């Protein structure tokens, strides 16, 4: 398959745009053959993975099924190891295992006293009602303040959250921040009743508070195959996301408009544009396709820091118990797979077999199949729930990020450029 045809199909963009982008990036960076190398590497990884999984069948349906099976097998392996992890519950064991895998670092976070002050100045009435408490002082004596803050998003109204955010966060300065370790916290059982609705809405039991450096786990078991590995990978991803935002907080530390930057970061603001100038890459810290598959920004060159966090989290997970003799049960096959996508037909011809043709089998269109761990974990969950959806939006964003990385000096330089240009929303070459 021709390189531009491949990228056009996988990324869902016009080949002519890609051709112009490539020509411009060569002129601006002097780096030749970036797309060719990525296509070649992608093809090799796809073929090596299918060989490792003993798949001679290249039909789209079969490839999807063996990737789901790999997720299922690897989840069982992790759950088996989890039994020996320290902790009273499976949730505490998962938190302990995550800390071991990722070596949770320190960061620059909002002081916990500020959280206490927010609750004292604006007592959350729904929280008080849920706990049958007469005042916030009583509640603060019983619960850790960051645990309370974590629960606000599924107890308090959207109006209260937005108003409180605007009032409280507009006055913060860098002096309200301090260096401390990232925390992984399992919420107490008292929240289960109300948290169940939140988990059902979010479809996962892990979330975080970037500004406080806290990742929290709702202790709600979901016994559908795929959900544990999906959420455990998300937990590792959040560790890197929080560390990244900590670097951003420090980047804006000495700026007079610190609070403005802080609020923009926590809102997840993305530059509203319909087009970009030659040599410009949008910084998009959200998965736009989840909200609107027709968002015009999906047609533009972009780099997504989310992909960087997934890359690092999945890398740590992939080397989990990497000495396992059975290669099929070794999670390292997921390393460097976040951006990999194959194009397969219903009949079984892969993109590597068709020598430049994007057209698929005679009786149907090609399928773009993600080889990313999280996409496939989500696909397994959907399959087990009878929906049989497949996902590739993590892989698509990671592919853009992989292309961007090819024009700079790799992962660390990419992160530096992201941090330096985050407030602009665009990286210019």
The N- and C-terminal alpha carbons lie at a distance of 29 Å
Number of strands: 10
Our estimate of the beta-strand percent is 5-15%
Structural class by secondary-structure content: mainly alpha
Number of helices: 18
* Alpha carbon gyration radius: 23 Å
What is this entry, summarized?
With about 425 residues, this protein is mostly helical. Helix content is about 55%, strand content about 10%.
Summarize the structure in words.
With 429 residues, the protein is mainly alpha-helical. The protein has 2 domains: 1-82 and 257-429, no CATH class; 85-222, no CATH class. 53% of the residues lie in helices and 9% in strands. The protein has 18 helices and 10 strands. The chain has helices spanning 3-11, 15-29, 34-52, 60-82, 90-102, 112-121, 125-131, 136-142, 145-155, 158-169, 192-202, 227-251, 258-267, 288-291, 305-318, 373-384, 393-407, 411-421; strands at 106-110, 177-181, 183-186, 206-209, 214-217, 280-283, 302-303, 341-344, 367-370, 426-428. It has a 3-stranded mixed β-sheet with strand order 3-5-4, sandwiched between helices. Strands 7-6-10 form a 3-stranded mixed β-sheet. The longest helix is centred in the middle third of the chain and has 25 residues, at 227-251.
SSE arrangement:
Layout: H1 3-11, H2 15-29, H3 34-52, H4 60-82, H5 90-102, E1 106-110, H6 112-121, H7 125-131, H8 136-142, H9 145-155, H10 158-169, E2 177-181, E3 183-186, H11 192-202, E4 206-209, E5 214-217, H12 227-251, H13 258-267, E6 280-283, H14 288-291, E7 302-303, H15 305-318, E8 341-344, E9 367-370, H16 373-384, H17 393-407, H18 411-421, E10 426-428
Parallel strand pairs: 3-5, 6-7
Antiparallel strand pairs: 1-2, 4-5, 6-10, 8-9
């Amino acid at each position: 398959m021709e390189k531009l045809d491949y990228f056009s199909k996988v990324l869902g963009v016009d080949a002519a745009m890609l051709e112009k982008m490539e020509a411009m990036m060569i002129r601006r960076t002097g780096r030749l053959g970036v797309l060719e190398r990525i296509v070649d590497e992608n093809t090799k990884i796809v073929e090596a993975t299918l060989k490792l999984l003993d798949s001679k069948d290249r039909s789209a349906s079969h490839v999807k099924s063996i990737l789901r099976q790999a997720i299922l097998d690897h989840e069982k392996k992790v759950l088996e190891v989890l039994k020996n992890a320290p902790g009273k519950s499976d949730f505490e064991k998962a938190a302990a295992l995550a800390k071991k895998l990722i070596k949770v670092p320190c960061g620059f976070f909002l002081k916990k006293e500020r959280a206490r002050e927010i609750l004292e100045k604006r007592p959350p009435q729904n929280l008080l009602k849920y706990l049958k408490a007469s005042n916030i002082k009583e509640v603060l004596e019983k619960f850790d303040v960051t645990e309370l803050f974590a629960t606000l998003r599924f107890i308090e109204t959207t109006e209260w959250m937005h108003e409180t955010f605007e009032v409280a966060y507009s006055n913060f300065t860098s002096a309200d921040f301090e260096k401390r370790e990232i925390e992984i916290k399992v919420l107490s059982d008292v929240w289960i009743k109300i948290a169940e609705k939140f988990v059902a809405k979010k479809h996962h039991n892990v979330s975080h508070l970037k500004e406080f450096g806290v990742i929290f786990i709702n202790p709600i078991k979901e016994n559908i195959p795929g959900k544990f590995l999906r959420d455990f990978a998300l937990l590792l991803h959040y560790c890197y996301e929080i560390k990244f935002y900590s670097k951003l907080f420090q980047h804006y530390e000495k700026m007079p408009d610190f609070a403005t930057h802080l609020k923009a970061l926590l809102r997840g603001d993305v530059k509203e544009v319909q087009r970009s100038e030659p040599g410009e890459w949008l910084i998009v810290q959200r998965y736009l396709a989840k909200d609107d598959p027709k968002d015009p920004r999906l047609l533009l060159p972009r780099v997504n820091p989310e992909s960087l966090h997934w890359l690092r989290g999945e890398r740590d997970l992939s080397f989990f118990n990497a000495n396992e003799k059975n290669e099929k049960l070794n999670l390292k096959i997921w390393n460097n797979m976040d951006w990999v996508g194959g194009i397969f037909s219903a009949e079984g011809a892969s993109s590597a077999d068709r020598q430049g043709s994007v057209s698929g089998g005679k009786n149907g269109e090609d399928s773009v199949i993600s080889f990313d761990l999280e996409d496939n974990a989500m696909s397994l969950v959907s399959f087990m729930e009878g929906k049989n959806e497949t996902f590739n939006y993590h892989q698509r964003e990671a592919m853009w990020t992989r292309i961007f990385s090819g024009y700079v000096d790799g992962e660390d330089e990419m992160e530096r450029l992201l941090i330096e240009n985050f407030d602009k929303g665009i990286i210019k070459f």
